[in-house]
Sequence to fold (402 residues):
Amino acid sequence: MLKEVEGHSDPQPPDKRSIEEDKGSTAEKLAKQYNVSPKTIKRDATLAEAVNAICEVSPEVRQKILSGETKINKKELKELAVKPKEVIEATAQQIEEGTYEKKKPAARKSAIDRSKKPNIILINCDDLGYGDLGCYGSTRNKTPNIDRLAAYGTVFTNFYMAAPVCSASRAAMLTGCYPRRVGFPGVLFPGQAIGLNPDESCMARMFKHEDYATMIIGKWHCGDQPEFLPANHGFDHYFGIPYSNDMGRQQGREAPWRCPLPLMKDTEVIQQQPDLAGITERYTQRAVEFIRDNRDKPFFLYWAHMYVHLPHYAPDTFIKQSGNGDFGAVMACLDWSVGALIAELGRLGLENDTMILFTSDNGGRTTHGGSNGELRGAKASHGKAGSGFRALYTNPIIFLQV
Fold:
C-alpha cells in the first residue's frame, strides 16, 4: 500500500492570478526588481506562489516588495512559499515594520563536506512534456515534491536531449555520443539484434572506476539481448523492464510479435507481464533499499521511470485524487516516488552528499493530458518540444539554492 512521505504534503497548484492582474504591470515591476523578463516572472509558478503568499498579508508589504524597498531576493521568496503559514506571516510583519534582515547562507554551506565524493541520482522520465510540472506552470498536475527540487536547486529552461525518441536519446545520454555514432537510428523493439555495444564508454562504467556502487532501475531500452544488458555497461545491479511498457501483451495489444513484458533482476527474468499499476511502488522500494545498502560509500543510481509513457497505469489512490484523468494520476505517482527518495536521503543524513538530476528522455505527446507548454512540436518531432526539455539539478537536494 502506498504511504505518504512524512513532511511532504500536497499543496494546491500555484496560482498566478495576482501576478497577472493589472495587465502585466505587477509582472513588469517584479521583472525589474529581480532583473529578469516579465515573461519569466509570469511562467515561474513557484515565484508567483511565493509572491502571492507573502503579499496577501497587507498592501503595504506588497508595495515594499515591488518597489524594491525591501531587499528580499527571489530565492528567499521561493523558500517562503513552502514554509508554514505562521512563518510567512511573521516574515511579512518584519517587512511591514522595516525590521526584515537578509539571511546569512554560511551555515547552510558549511554542512556540505567537499572532501566526499557526491552520490548521484539521475531520474530520467519517459515522454514527460515541457509543461507537465507544477514548477513550470502546470496547474493541472500535482507535483509538490518535484517543485521543491526546483525551488532549492538549479532549473535549466533550455536543455536538449540528442534525439526526440527514447532509445536513441538514452544511448546518447549514457555515452555522451550522437545516437548514430553508437548505432542507434531510433527506437529499438524486443528481440532486435541491435543494442549498446559493451565497448562503448558508458557513464556507469566511469563511476565504477571511481569506486561507486551503481544501479539502474526501470526502463533500459538500449538492447534486450544478453550482450547489451546493463551488467555489461558498468551497472552492478538492474531491476526493471528492458523496453517500453507498451511493447507487452496488454489488453488490446495482442499482435504476434508482442511478448509478455519481462521484469528483470540483474540478468534474469523474474516475472512476466508484472502489474504496471504497482511497478513504480516496487521500483521505489528497490531504490530505497539500494540507497540504504550503500549509505557508507558513494553511489550512482540511474532511475529510468516508466511514467509518463502510454498506456497509463496508476494506483487507484492517485486516480481518485487526480484532476487531470489518468495523466494527472501517473504524474502524482511519479511525484510521490521522488518524495519517498528525498525522505529516505534525509532520514539517512545523505541530503548534503547527494546530487539529483531530473529530466526526460524526450518531449511529451501532448495527448492524453500532457503538455509541452509554449514549445512547438511533440515527441518524435524536430520542433523544440521533441528534444527540448526543462531539467532540474540539485546539489544537494535540500537547502541549497544556486
Remarks:
- The longest helix spans residues 325-347.
- The mean pLDDT is 76.
- The CA atoms of residues 121 and 356 lie 5 Å apart.
